[in-house]
Structure formats: structure tokens, C-alpha cells
Amino acid sequence: MAIEAWFMDESNEDQRLPHQRKPNEPVSLDHLAELGVLYWHLNPKVYENDVELKKIREARGYNYMDMLDLRPENVANFEEKLRNFYTEHIHADEEIRYCLEGSAYFDVRDKEDRWIRIWIKAGDLIILPAGIYHRFTLDTSNYVRLMRLFVGEPVWTAHNRPQEDHPARKEYVKSLTERVGVPLAAH
Q: From first to last of its 187 residues, what are the pLDDT tens digits of the chain?
């Protein structure tokens, strides 16, 4: 069972809707990997003793973990927080999320600055590279329980777009250029 991803439409409707183009334009795992987005599907029912999760954490140095339970009744100023998560931004570090329950969307920009919507569900572990423009929102279920993983103490600072001069963004753009051998213009 692979993750679902697609190019988004240009609609300004509720951010929690799928926003698929008509006809739908799916995005493959290979295309996501070209952007530096990594994905695993694990068994969320055994996350506490999951050997595969342990291997990933050890190989990538994720030594800190916490949980995030997002639903209206658990989060003060829920709608405002959701709007804040939906603001386009980058981080200086990878963003690692493992969906244990529920579902949500991560939107990432591709090389042509188009939005790709990635629908994460229980069992999906996704890694967004440092410097990639992205945003997050719940879907219409309005619920997700996520494990957040970090290297060292958690630092979660969002740098809202534009950030073309941020070192993480420059490194990310350089990595895309090296992968394809064609310079990527700043957006």
C-alpha cells in the first residue's frame, strides 16, 4: 500500500478538501524521491516495538520522539493553528512524521513550483528534506495522531516563504540541481 500524491488544483476552497485536478494527475513515489521526499509504510499498531522503525531511527540518527494529537477538542484555537500550519514555509532540518492514526495532507512544491498534495494515513512515515517549501493541513476527518522524530533536541522553526537566501533552502536547491544536472531558478 503506497502513499497517495497528486498535483493540486488552484481552488481556494477549504484546505481540508483533496484539491485534485480534473482529471486527477497522480504523482509517483519516484517523483517524490526526486524532490528528496522519502517514504516508508510501517505497522502503526506495533510502533513501540517496531524493528523497521528502530532501524530507520538508528540509520538516520533520530534520537528524539514526541507525539502530536491534532483534533479540534485537543487544540486551543484549532482553526487558527491549522491556518498557521498551512502557511508555506521551510525548516532548517528534515521534517519527519509518522502517522499512527487518522490522516492529513502535506503539500510540497516541485521543481516547477507546482503544489503536490501527499495524503498520509496510518502507517505512513514521511520525511521532507530541509529547505523544501511545504505546508500541512488535516483532511476532512479533522484528526491525526503523529509521531514527530528529530535528530537531537527538537527544533521546529518555520521560516515562511520567501527564503531563497536561507542556507537550508540554498542547499536543497543545490541538491536538486545535482540530481538532474539542470539549474533550478529561484521562485
A: 679 999 999 999 999 999 999 999 999 999 999 999 999 999 999 999 999 999 999 999 999 999 999 999 999 999 999 999 999 999 999 999 999 999 999 999 999 999 999 999 999 999 999 999 999 999 999 999 999 999 998 877 999 999 999 999 999 999 998 765 443 333 2
Residue ranges for the binding site for Ni(2+)?
89, 91, 95, 134
Burial annotation 17-48 (CB, 10 A radius, 16+ → b, else e): eebbeeeeeebeeeebeebbbbbeebebeebe
Q: All 3 cell numbers of residue 143?
A: 484528526
CB 139 within 8 A of CB 97: no
Binding-site residues, please?
89, 91, 95, 134
Residues in the chain: 187
Global confidence as pTM: 0.92
Q: Please name which of 65, 55, 81, 57 lies closest in space to residue 137, comparing C-alpha atoms.
A: 81
Annotated binding site for Fe(2+): 89, 91, 95, 134
Nearest to 116 by CA among 22, 25, 16: 25
Cβ atoms of 114 and 138 closer than 8 Å = no
What is the chain's percent helix, strand, coil content, to nearest 5?
25, 35, 40
